[in-house]
Specification:
binds NADPH dihydro-nicotinamide-adenine-dinucleotide phosphate, 462 residues, 12 helices, five-stranded antiparallel beta sheet, Enolase-like, domain 1, alpha/beta, 3 domains, FAD/NAD(P)-binding domain
């Protein structure tokens, strides 16, 4: 049933991962769907996030591979890296993918408006370029997030991740501020592309919220890649000098660099959206308040993805969108389960993680927790001379030893953690892992032969 008094059954604001999936599925169900996008269709993931970032990681890895291949008997003439070649190839692919996102909506019958939409009331949006007013029975907010940086003196000299994909030239030196996903990944990228890289973090351990041992291993990973890590400092001022910048920190120290990259987090992109006109409330920090079915404080308005600041990952936005479709259009109220979601940080080598950290597990299950772990040098690195190792950690609970957390640092961790995520989600036990025959010789075989780590079980590792 559609209500013809509105222009559309569903109007989606934002053609990123969550918005496109929701819009396409609603259109496939015969709903009249409109989608507004102020930038390129595809959103953060496709245009200025996961996709171009992963290409940069691959690009950075090739440099190291050329060096490592020498241990396997290869020799090369002079090698060099050309930033514009990689940058332009990535942008070409981004354009192609963005086109697919747009086409996929249109092919399914949705109407795409390439302009910004803002709320007039809870059933009406205004397209800001054309001034057109559009009404819809249901509106989905899927506008994502944007990089955020503190308002320190000289902040206008810094770039954020959005800017990093289209730089005219690579700097000789970069200073990355932050210790999270983006800071760690981009430090690895720049170092791999031959840029002298400093990563400065206000805390004492990178990757806040991750398992403590993973955090320590990631510091080693960064150092092995030649990244100069500075801990417990925050920038207070960026000053332009001839040909570069001097950044002053709160401990009085100064670092000279050619490029300042602020990777200090992201914020929901709700400012100026007119949410107050539609009765949509936001949390402190701007995230749209939603219930477990992604419904906002306005009955006919839903929100999915980073704009809700639940778990800011592309596949999560997609799943939230699919749950919204079930709830709104299939008479099947569905709350997406945000537990035990596997994710990867594409440092070089990467991190893979799913389930509880050791500290979380001990807080929740006390002495019922057993930790299994190993660290080793992968076979490939023995001949190549690559100093990077592999770390694996498995956390179980109870006598049945259900696996409740897996944490990896090392080659292929991003791939492995997807499969291990299935095991954790399925509630498999350590005995199930042990009953599985190893695939030899691989890195992953170690996960089915792990031995308990000897520690004082009451120690809470933060
Ligand atoms: P994060 O929240 O991961 O990291 C932000 C970093 O900035 C933290 O180290 C934080 O410190 C620091 N910081 C915050 N405020 C300040 C300040 N005022 N001065 C100095 N440092 C500060 O954000 P990101 O932008 O890196 O990533 C955003 C989200 O995007 C991630 O949480 C993730 O969900 C998603 N993402 C996922 C990726 C993946 O799946 N591979 C890749 C990239 C992003 P502190 O730790 O002390 O708070």
């Amino acid at each position: 049933m559609t209500d013809q008094k509105y222009d559309f059954d569903l109007f989606v604001i934002g053609a990123g991962s969550g918005g496109v999936r929701s819009g396409r599925m609603a259109a496939q169900l015969g709903k009249r769907v409109g989608v507004a996008e102020e930038s390129l269709p595809g959103g953060t993931c496709v245009v200025r996030g996961c996709v171009p970032k992963k290409f940069l990681v691959y690009g950075a890895d090739y440099g190291a591979s050329l060096e490592e291949a020498k241990g396997y008997g290869w020799s090369f003439g002079e090698t060099s890296f050309d930033w514009p070649t990689l940058r332009d190839a990535i942008q070409k692919e981004v354009s192609r993918l963005s086109g697919i996102y747009s086409t996929i909506l249109e092919k399914n019958g949705a109407t795409v408006f390439r302009e910004r939409a803002e709320f007039v009331d809870n059933h009406t949006v205004r397209l800001t370029k054309s001034g057109k007013l559009i009404t819809a029975e249901t509106i989905l907010i899927a506008v994502g997030g944007r990089p955020w940086a503190p308002e320190i003196k000289g902040i206008e000299h810094a770039i954020v991740s959005d800017d990093s994909f289209t730089l005219d030239k690579l700097p000789e030196r970069v200073l990355i501020i932050g210790g999270g996903y983006i800071a760690c990944e981009f430090a690895g990228i720049y170092a791999g592309l031959g840029v002298k890289t400093v990563q400065a973090y206000r805390g004492g351990r990178l990757l806040n919220g991750f398992d403590a041992e993973v955090r320590d291993k990631v510091a080693l990973v960064q150092e092995n890649n030649g990244i100069d890590l500075k801990f417990n400092i925050s920038p207070t001022e960026i000053k332009e000098t001839q040909g570069g910048y001097i950044v002053t920190f709160d401990d009085g120290s100064k670092i000279g660099t050619d490029l300042v990259f602020m990777a200090t987090g992201r914020k929901p992109h709700t400012s100026g959206l007119g949410l107050e006109n539609a009765g949509v409330e936001v949390e402190d920090g701007g995230a749209v308040k939603v219930d477990k079915f992604s419904k906002t404080t306005a009955d006919n308005i839903y929100a999915v993805g980073d704009v809700t600041n639940r778990m800011n990952l592309t596949p999560v936005a997609i799943r939230e969108g699919m749950a919204f479709i079930e709830t709104r259009y299939k008479d099947n109220p569905t709350a997406y389960d945000h537990e035990q979601i596997a994710s990867a940080v594409f440092t070089r080598p990467p991190v893979g993680t799913v389930g509880l950290t050791e500290a979380q597990a001990r807080k929740k299950h006390g002495d019922a927790v057993t930790v299994y772990s190993t660290k080793f040098r992968p076979m490939k690195n023995i001949l190549s001379g690559d100093p990077q190792g592999v770390f694996m950690k498995l956390i179980t609970k109870g006598d049945e030893e259900t696996v409740i957390g897996v944490h990896l640092v090392g080659d292929h961790s991003g791939e492995l953690i997807q499969i291990l995520g299935i095991c954790v989600k399925a509630g498999l036990t350590k005995a199930d892992f042990d009953a599985t025959c190893a695939v030899h010789p691989t890195i992953s075989e170690e996960i089915v032969t792990l031995k308990p780590r000897e520690i004082n079980k009451t120690t809470v590792v933060s």
